[in-house]
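Appendix B. One record, verbatim.
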Amino acid sequence: MTAQNSLSDNIKAQMRKGILEYCILSILSRTDAYASEIIAELRQSQMIVVEGTLYPLLTRQKNGGLLEYRWEESPQGPPRKYYRITEHGRHVLAQLDAAWNELVEQINNIRATDSLHQTLGDVDPWENKTPLKTEY
């Protein structure tokens, strides 16, 4: 693996970590779920996550009043902890939806500007520059 690939993978991993809590709230806004179901949905969406990452996030969201849980008997094995989004969690999710849409729009604007500059053949401002002379 090259250093460039490693940097790219690290950036992608950091971006995923930053939006996992948003993804968890989104999943739980549709249905109550236990941890394995949440992990399965995240994996299906290619948001790879392990239990060791998920449980601290669920605990933080529960402590923040975004989630609550209940225990349910399982037909296979021990009881399961089902998580559910709270009204406060739904309010926060609505705010995150708005912030996400705003962020996507901002990024699209930047990307459109980049495309426009490339289409117009703008000169790279770093290309063919002579060093600045500094006099003391």
